[in-house]
Task: structure prediction
Amino acid sequence: MTRTVIATCIVLAVLVLSGLVAGCSSSKLSRTAASPRAAALIDEAESHLGTAYCVGGATSDCFDCSGFVTSCFASIGITLPRTSREIATVGVAVDRDSVTPGDVVAFRTGGRDINHVGIMVDAERFIHASTSKGVIVSSLTEKYWRSSYVTARRVVTR
Result:
């Protein structure tokens, strides 16, 4: 191998290990503490990565955020309400610092009501249907999501 190739591999490895390259490392590596049911939920959610966004969508053809969350939970036998605002009332409230894989996170991205939801993949990242990019993984540490965060709810129990 040339020195350039080796240096490039080292830089990429450091970036992946430090979490700076979102989406390059598998979330499965960081959710070893997830219950089997939460792991199944996240596996289902991750199977839809890249699926397009559409208003009112709740199938693998396209999703809106609440349709995505309700569809994923249905895959493990849990029925949730259809709107983000209603989903944010289900289960038990969890402190932001205590979220675990499978918890629902809710946001207020505009207006007075909760209008966006996602599913925690690990203690920092969540998967959701973004209006601009479809189903993606984002981080609660991003300024936009940190400032829009409202609540987390534990719906999946061991």
In short: The first strand starts at residue 58 and ends at 59.
